[in-house]
């Protein structure tokens, strides 16, 4: 009985110890949860503070992408400043090469065949194109695109550029290469080493048109000479490969195997005239082919660029404004509003405004012939039309 009683008395003691351990574990769990909650609360406070300090209601995915791409933009901007003068020199050199080809090769070729009427046509039409190309390229390079005045009262606008902290009239945008705002900015052109803006946009476009016409004109004019040279398979092969390292190496190897380590005068002369083409004939063939392929390559590339800008002019917008208008169309489409570019007055009227035709100016005198007339607008104020039902976006 005593043993049974002692056993029964021990059971409550063990139960009491188990409950104490449970209570202690519960207290430790509560302390652990409290510590985790405090750490999580501190983390949320820190995250909220960072978001509060960096909050911007105008932040979007495009802004985040632009910020991420900023290092690449910085490299491109610096590179554009460096290569701009090189591109201008390249344009001058290639244009001089094409013009020299006409005087040295094409006109004598036509003269020897007695085609005096064709020579007369080339003389007048070719020089008309050349004068327009040179004039509009020179004006595009040297004419400032236009900058807004730094006095706010002179612009009648209240918008400020975020980068240069200056007045920003309508259609004005900041050029990161030039590092200042440009009136009606279209893009920065490395071939002009200049921004294309309000005061030189017409020069740029007419240069592209006349240069494209010039390359097309050259390709048609030199086709007969090019066909005679290029489609002669034997002449083409030896012209491009006779001076190549492979053929000369093979010829030198054969000659040294026959005559020892030295080359005879006959072998040297054979190497010079390999394939039956003299040095002058080979150079003539290369110059003709280079002329044609250069012009047709420029014609295709420049034709695509000119067509793109002609389409923008027909719609009354610039390259920068196209992206803005596309975003506006998507935004207003959600509220069932059809957006219309406020500066679009129809293709014909847009071209008239762009070319500055008005106030007694004519297409023949001021477009077909070189002209330095100013645009109709001053670049600060523009005629526009508002889309019916337009809802302004929350731009700063």
Question: Could you please describe the fold and organization of this structure?
Answer:
With 396 residues, the protein is mainly alpha-helical. The chain contains 13 helices and four strands. Helix content is 65%, strand content 3%. The strands form two sheets. The chain has a two-stranded antiparallel ribbon. A hairpin with a 4-residue loop joins strand 1 (173-175) and strand 2. The longest helix has 53 residues, at 2-54. The chain is extended and about 105 Å long.
Helix content: 55-70%
What is the approximate shape?
extended
Low-confidence stretches: 1-18
Biggest sheet strand order reads 1-2
Provide a compact summary of the structure:
The chain is mainly α and 396 residues long. It contains 13 helices and 4 strands. The strands form 2 sheets. A two-stranded antiparallel ribbon has the order 1-2.
Defining key terms:
65% helix; two-stranded antiparallel sheet; disordered N terminus; 396 residues; mainly alpha; single chain
Please describe the topology of this protein.
Blueprint lengths: L1 H53 L6 H8 L1 H43 L3 H27 L30 E3 L4 E3 L4 E3 L4 E3 L4 H21 L1 H8 L2 H9 L3 H15 L5 H8 L6 H36 L4 H15 L13 H9 L7 H4 L30
